[in-house]
Amino acid sequence: MSEMFREMVEFFSLADSEKQQYEAKSASDPIKCGNFNVANTSNQSFTLWREYLKLYVHPDFHCPHQPQLLRDVVQEYTQMIRVLTRKLIEAVCEALELNQRRYVDEILKMESSFQLFATNYYPRCPQPDQAIGIPPHTDHGLFTFLIHNGVAGLQIEHDGKWFNADSPKNSILVNAADQLEIFTNGRCKSVKHRAVVNEEKDRISIVVANGPSGEAVSIGGLRWWRKMGEQSIVQ
């Protein structure tokens, strides 16, 4: 993990001219980066205080050429996360008394699963009450895996209140995501969360979002989910 954080620091330290080639032009860009901007809600305007890099890494792998070691560490880490994702899906199947082989391989098509690697750099902020790292949201996909450099900043919502999720350094925090809630007919709940900033320390987080294959959602799949004995939340 320490090697991966070193590569992330090196990427964000690249000259702007080097990073400009990856500036986000479309949500579908397989490699995209960006930095501070302003977000607006119905009654508030605030600064998004972060730089980010997002990569589509499976089923096709995409990565910047610099830093030189970035490709290798991202490939190794995301491959390990895919193995872990499969084990978690199998555990969900067992808990819900589903046929693991059919659910994992035929319905979700995990061999060609979608995977996104994202890293966020939150520099020290002089006015943290006027900015936010990432606004409240839930994640797409099945599971999201998050690690950080030891600086807190993740918060989760429960019963309308926000709580710090201060996971230890070098631990992996796992969030249930939107498609897991759908595929389990609401038995597993997607977790709303946000990232806040501080004025004392820089924070780096690394997130890997994992979803089923893009071919997974089908009418046949819906029929299978409804066999779970509840009215499907998928309409």
TrEMBL record:
Query: Which keywords does the record carry?
Result: Iron, Metal-binding, Oxidoreductase
Q: Where is the Fe2OG dioxygenase domain?
A: 112-212
Domain of life, per lineage: Eukaryota
Q: Does the keyword Iron apply?
A: yes
Q: Which GO terms describe its molecular function?
A: metal ion binding; oxidoreductase activity
Q: Does the keyword Metal-binding apply?
A: yes
Q: Which family does it belong to?
A: Belongs to the iron/ascorbate-dependent oxidoreductase family.
Q: Which PANTHER family match?
A: OXOGLUTARATE/IRON-DEPENDENT DIOXYGENASE
Q: What is this protein called?
A: Fe2OG dioxygenase domain-containing protein
What is the protein's species of origin? Salvia splendens
